[in-house]
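Subject: mismatched residue count in predicted assembly?

I count 226 residues in my input, but I want to confirm that the predicted structure covers every chain. Input:
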Amino acid sequence: QKEVEQNSGPLSVPEGAIASLNCTYSDRGSQSFFWYRQYSGKSPELIMSIYSNGDKEDGRFTAQLNKASQYVSLLIRDSQPSDSATYLCAVIEGSNYKLTFGKGTLLTVNP
Amino acid sequence: GAGVSQSPSNKVTEKGKDVELRCDPISGHTALYWYRQSLGQGLEFLIYFQGNSAPDKSGLPSDRFSAERTGGSVSTLTIQRTQQEDSAVYLCASSPGTGGYNEQFFGPGTRLTVL
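Triage response: the counts match. Full output below for your records.
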């Protein structure tokens, strides 16, 4: 059973701080990793994808991947109250096609 | 450009009735996916289409669930004889192709409530 694990939170950070969200996965054959943001009552919105070991930056977001440790993380710099949402980690194994999701981490950014 | 669209946005039905949920993918996207999100189960994969073919139906919960896609575009998910445990948000996603390096973009979802 392929698993994707996330801390459920809630993770609470003050405005302007760095929020760090973590995810581990069980399938060593996993090749593609995604972070989705989901506001309450809305559908998941893709914010980052990463395929190679190392860091990938996009604006205030940085995704980090370590395949040896089977670990992927998302850093949000200068956190804003509008970043308050559930963050879903999702993984695709090999040349597969379906996303396997973690249960999500609820992030609250306090003004 | 236009994103993935789904209809209806909300559906309330009585136990035992059939329902149809519709998904219109992003123009040009050949792959289409159905997922379900419920409180206890998180987000789970149901079925995907490459063109009009559905190579993997293994995620469908029971034979009451079926899906089709026509013209390589619009897809319909049908649930027959609905049960209360079918209550969930049904999400459709599309991607330019299949394979792991294709990003999937979700529609707004259909919230299904079975009374």
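The longest strand of chain A covers residues 30-38. Marking this ticket as 'not a bug'.
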